[in-house]
Write the structure tokens for this entry.
Amino acid sequence: PSDTTDFAVYPKAVCVTNAGNLTVLPVRNDDADTVTFISAPVGFIPPFRVRRVLSTNTTATVCTVFD
């Protein structure tokens, strides 16, 4: 997770592997337009592609899925 750096290659998806809060920046959103999922369960996948998982407000552990 990073509050300032996008993924070098945008993943096809991110998946929660340890439940918690997840703050992401969707691919088409401006830098300030983050989305936070509160108490995201294990197996949760955001319904859109993300370009960044933020460290601020993220307590969940995630993995990335590439093509």
In short: The CA atoms of residues 15 and 45 lie 5 Å apart. Strands lie at 13-18, 20-26, 35-40, 50-53, 61-65. The longest strand covers residues 20-26. The mean pLDDT is 97.
